[in-house]
Amino acid sequence: MSDQSSKKTLTTTAGAPIADNQNAMTAGPLGPLLIQDYQLIEKLAHQNRERIPERTVHAKGWGAYGALTITGDISKYTKASALQPGAKTDLVLRFSTVAGELGAADAERDVRGFAIKFYTKEGNWDLVGNNTPVFFIRDPYKFPDFIHTQKRHPKTNLRSPTAMWDFWSLSPESLHQVTILMSDRGLPTDVRHINGYGSHTYSLINAKGERVWVKFHFKTMQGHKHWTNAEAAEVVGRTRESTQEDLFGAIAKGDFPKWKMQVQIMPEEDVGKHWYNPFDLTKVWPHADYPPIDIGVLELNRNPENYFAEIEQAAFSPSNTVPGIGFSPDKMLQARVFSYADAHRYRLGTHYEHLPVNAARCPVHHYHKDGPMRFFEGKTGNVDAYYEPNSFGGASEDKRFAEPPLKIWGDADRYSHRIGNDDYKQAGDLFRLMPADAQWRLMDNIAAAMQGVPLEIVRRQVGHFYKADPAYGLGVARRMGVGAGDLSAEAAE
Known about the structure:
By secondary structure, the protein is α+β, with helices and mostly antiparallel strands. The chain has two domains: about 60-360, Catalase core domain (Catalase HpII,  Chain A, domain 1); about 425-490, no CATH class. Helices cover about 30% and strands about 15% of the residues. It has 13 helices and ten strands. It has helices at about 40-50, 145-150, 160-170, 175-180, 230-240, 240-250, 305-310, 330-345, 425-435, 435-450, 455-470, 470-480, 485-490, and strands at about 60-70, 90-95, 110-120, 125-130, 195, 200-205, 210-220, 260-265, 295-300, 325. The longest helix is centred in the C-terminal third of the chain and has 17 residues, at about 330-345.
């Protein structure tokens, strides 16, 4: 038995010692309660607030800490300190599902989020991506509509395959991502065996103020592993936490997962030279045109001590960039720069970036003043400097960190993102790259996911598959009982 003198004294959140944490204060042994029992009130009130709103998307997640070590040299493209040869940068990485709710099973067919916060010496750099290089849409106007199709139907309170396939069949730009989702890679066994992609096009800016376009990739060094639908159903029957168990367990026993970091570099002047828009989130840059360059290794090597504080409260946003890394005209990226930070202000509070897991590990100075969660000391550089400009030596701008102008094109208007876009070529190329058995599983998975969907929607979607590759369309059509005549008419529209 430990020495009584070495025991820690339980206190209130304000530090006052608590004499009795077993018995509520009552008027006599039979009650009633007294409202002056402040610790009872505190415990009940805190319990009511122990759950913050779950993320609208990416609610179910798993995460760990690690580091990125740069082994290559792309200093001619970027001045970012975290990307210089030999740099080692601490990070936290949160994986997630997109559509699943907080209590969803891990082994479900879904895109996996791959969000990284790099604690660089120039501020936090957040790279918020997925395990796929593309996405379902390219115009942020449609993002709320798309997410509504992934959530519960307002009447049945059930997920709706009809809503999903109706939206996808009316949005041919989704075909590339749908093909990936319904393929083997749409149901990974865990997150150690997936790739990660920044997905969007970003800028790299060098010390001379020159810009190139870049895509970031993280290729798993563990190899790829996937469940079939039947295998996943058996896994879910045993445990709903298969990914959490795998990631936490691997790191706990010293089996640290690693990813090879790569970049694709495109000269700024190459825009307009391709059949595709390089800022289109539904397209990949062909590797033959822009070969991936190995630049480093990302390793996860430490589990969090408190999941809620370090993973659930982790907040990632593409708005967090550092000198040497910038944005692009990618419409989806432009919208996410606002929407992600705004989601965190709602979910976590005004000063969410001062929570320990989100706090930068370099000096921080700003003039954001009051509001909920103002729990930290002033960050302006002088107690009298609570506005800018000021005469008290408070933090001020530094034009050394200005970026070169970002070129824009055309008049302000609502341009159709479907005019001039080929949404079938890359989806068809992906299908043709698959071995025959993977093609069969892809088409089987699609047919399984389409069960109960109205025939009109099935025909419309199968028409898209046919345009990507006739064998793709015909294979799904046979599985869904759609006749070749119907398919030809649909594909001709």
